[in-house]
DNA sequence: CGGTATCCCTGCAGATACTG
DNA sequence: CAGTATCTGCAGGGATACCG
């Protein structure tokens, strides 16, 4: 993500580390399920089963996997109520909310360019 | 995304169509390679081989596939110079530039929260 | 040089079943 | 209800080779 200007400097090793880490985070988070979860979660608190309904088409497994990943990266907070049956609630952390801003931006972008995109596709497919 | 408030209205069918299309676009574009291509392309014009060098780790196949997808959705413009050997250049369209803004946002987000994320991971992995 | 086609294999993701 | 584990398939994606 643009650290080329430091090539050869003493900081290079550190920056390379940061860069590869950034790359890794990017790979983790820049996937459609993660984005959809972040978007649907918004500023609400939702249970696992609620989230599963909101994010249509996501499987039980994908939802848990992505929630674990997001939790590990500190984007969602997981709250377990020790009741029976268990009640597990998820909310976005501050970092999660911050990322949500950019995901929102992408949603807005999709709405704004929907027409352009449809047209472009028709032209391309011909 | 988020048209639930119109449920039952006459517009519902259209919105459902728009929504599922938006979903599809989201799935296309919200993947790490697309993001990295958009980010590295920036406001430059790059050849296929240059792009391949910049986006480290991307295979020939993934690069072509993603470039086709981005072209189809009207995010990149492809310019073929009929010389020999061929020279093919890629640039972001206006829609592509607009999306780049949000991708930039995500890059900024990554830099800002890198520390938080590392910490969170260490805690989680323990 | 850039694109397409083919082969092949890993690993993702769905389905199912079981626990606390 | 939420999570984990196991099995299985099928497709995503790498490697390779060949065209324009």
UniProtKB/TrEMBL annotation, chains A, B:
Query: Record's PROSITE patterns?
Result: HTH_HXLR
Q: Which PANTHER family match?
A: TRANSCRIPTIONAL REGULATOR, MARR FAMILY (PTHR33204), TRANSCRIPTIONAL REGULATORY PROTEIN (PTHR33204:SF39)
According to the UniProt entry, its GO molecular function terms are:
DNA binding
Q: By its UniProt entry, which Gene3D superfamilies does this protein fall under?
A: Winged helix-like DNA-binding domain superfamily/Winged helix DNA-binding domain
Give start and end of each HTH hxlR-type domain.
18-118
Tell me the domain of life.
Bacteria
Q: What is this protein called?
A: DNA-binding HxlR family transcriptional regulator
Please tell me the species this chain comes from. Answer: Actinomadura viridis
Q: Which Pfam families match?
A: HxlR
Q: For this UniProt record, give its keywords in alphabetical order, as a comma-separated list.
A: DNA-binding, Transcription, Transcription regulation
Sorted alphabetically, which CDD domains does this protein's record hold?
A: HTH_ARSR (cd00090)
